[in-house]
Design a protein that fits this description.
This protein is an alpha/beta fold. It has a single domain, classed as 3-Layer(aba) Sandwich (Udp-n-acetylmuramoylalanyl-d-glutamate--2,6- Diaminopimelate Ligase, Chain: A, domain 1), CATH 3.40.1390.20. The protein is 48% helix and 16% strand. The chain has helices spanning 4-11, 34-40, 55-63, 78-87, 98-121, and strands at residues 14-17, 27-30, 45-49, 67-70, 91-93. A 5-stranded mixed β-sheet has the order 1-5-4-3-2. Strand 4, helix 4 and strand 5 form a beta-alpha-beta unit. Helix 2 packs parallel to helix 3. It is globular, with a radius of gyration of 14 Å.
């Protein structure tokens, strides 16, 4: 299974907060309309966004995503970081655009699945 730490290492993501590096990533979601994300992101998702305010931390906590990845070089505001720290939310960053980043997250998940499958076949 792909963990948040493995994703950081594989994609060269910057770490903003990493309280749970061994958290498994089971899916992904990309979006910036927070009410939309609340209804669609799932527990264990890697959530890619460019939203940076403290409401991102609230939505991440509510949906129990594995991590939030800020794309396009944006950084979360101070309140978002503080709230994430209090609630143990993994925050990561990347200068890459959302489309490219989502493709790389998907590829990393498929590679991890292939490795798990190959390991289980032995």
């Amino acid at each position: 299974m792909l963990t948040v730490q493995k994703l950081v290492d594989k994609l060269g993501l910057s770490v903003i907060e990493l309280p749970d590096p061994d958290r498994g990533i089971t899916g992904g979601y990309a979006g910036d309309l927070l009410s939309w994300v609340m209804g669609r992101a799932r527990e264990g998702d890697a959530w890619v966004t460019i939203m940076t305010n403290m409401n991102v931390a609230a939505v991440a906590q509510l949906t129990d995503v594995a991590c939030v990845i800020f794309a396009e070089g944006v950084t979360p505001d101070k309140e978002a970081v503080i709230k994430s720290r209090l609630h143990g939310i993994n925050l990561l960053g990347s200068p890459k655009g959302m489309f490219e980043l989502c493709g790389e997250v998907t590829d990393a998940m498929h590679s991890a699945d292939d490795a798990d499958y190959a390991g289980g076949a032995e």
